[in-house]
Write a structure and sequence with these properties.
By secondary structure, the chain is of the alpha/beta class. It is about 25% helix and about 25% strand. It has two domains: about 5-115 and about 240-310, FAD/NAD(P)-binding domain (3-Layer(bba) Sandwich); about 115-235, FAD/NAD(P)-binding domain, CATH 3.50.50. The longest helix has 26 residues, at about 285-310.
Length: about 325
């Protein structure tokens, strides 16, 4: 049972960076792999005001930098390379990267999930300037202003209810004739006096100058288009958990494709842990992801100790 190192962490968002910090402090000499840039979804947050310990709003980019600096200070090695797949043989994992294979005794997967986008004009240009994929993160910045929610599932209804505490003018548009959310949740949404729902309606374009000012909507029954003033557009049309790298391991997923774990972040494959937005969880926030990273690092350290203890018996 020989491996290049004890632990490899794939993904440098809040969950991966916290896992790296705790693993480094446990003398595991973790290797952190990131394909693009450290920070993950936090990089999309213009001003983060609900992360503990920061009484003033902090840019997501700045918080990500602090996370990375702290992990590095404890001894985390970071490699900027893509991970293509993970295989396992005789208790040893091989992470196949763009720079070649790396072996380890345990893996923490923190690859996150990508928000499904609408791919309409203005969406990309105004992301972080009125277009958001997280009501809890960005809703308070538009308190008292008109907001638009796109979607009709559980997430769209939940987030609309949150926004309705901040504004009495929340417009929810859904392309179908009825909401896809659970019945009780859908009924609460329709009864909420601060939420107006338009069915058979699709977002066509997001407009503005320096920030979102209005949207163009399509009535897909009549074919007519019309403009609606709004300060923010919240898109909740699903997420895509990034599980491709572990497809060959037969990891257990939930119905939506997220990785299932126990309370120790252990997946159905021993030695493989999952944290953050790639994991099945009822609440996706930076603070939750960080906590999961700490738990996974602790559990991985115990797993590695047990593995090495067995080898020397």
């Amino acid at each position: 049972m020989k491996a290049d190192r004890d632990l490899i962490i794939i993904g440098a968002g809040a969950a991966g960076l916290t896992a790296a910090q705790y693993a480094a402090r446990a003398n595991l000499a973790p290797l952190l792999l990131e394909e693009l840039a450290s920070g993950g979804q936090a990089l999309l947050i213009d001003r983060l005001e609900n992360y503990p310990g920061f009484p003033e709003a902090i840019p997501g980019t700045e918080l990500s930098r602090l996370f990375e600096e702290q992990a590095a200070r404890f001894g985390t090695e970071v490699q900027y390379t893509g991970a293509q797949s993970v295989t396992q043989s005789d208790g040893v994992f091989t992470v196949h990267t763009d720079n070649g294979p790396l072996t380890c005794l345990a893996v923490i997967l923190a690859t996150g999930a990508k928000h499904r986008t609408l791919d309409v004009p203005g969406e990309k240009e105004f992301t972080g300037k009125g277009v958001s994929y997280c009501a809890t993160c960005d809703g308070p910045f538009f308190k008292g202003k008109p907001m638009l929610v796109v979607g009709g599932g559980d997430a769209a209804c939940d987030e609309s209810a949150f926004l309705a505490h901040l504004s009495d003018s929340v417009l929810m548009v859904h392309r179908r004739e009825r909401l896809r959310a659970q019945r009780a949740l859908a009924e609460r949404t329709l009864r909420n006096p601060h939420i107006r729902v338009r069915f058979n309606t699709e977002l066509q374009e997001i407009r503005g100058s320096a920030k979102v000012e209005e949207v163009a909507l399509l009535d897909n029954k009549t074919g007519s288009t019309f403009a609606e003033k709004t300060a923010a557009v919240f898109v909740f049309v699903g997420s895509l958990p990034q599980t491709r790298v572990v497809e060959g391991l037969g990891v257990k997923l939930d119905e939506a494709g997220y990785i299932q774990t126990d309370q120790r972040m252990q997946t159905s494959v021993r030695g493989l842990f999952a944290v953050g937005d790639v994991r099945a969880t009822p609440f996706r926030q930076l603070v939750v992801a960080a906590g999961e990273g700490a738990v996974a690092a602790h559990a991985a350290a115990q797993y590695i100790d047990e593995l090495k203890g067995d080898a020397y018996r």
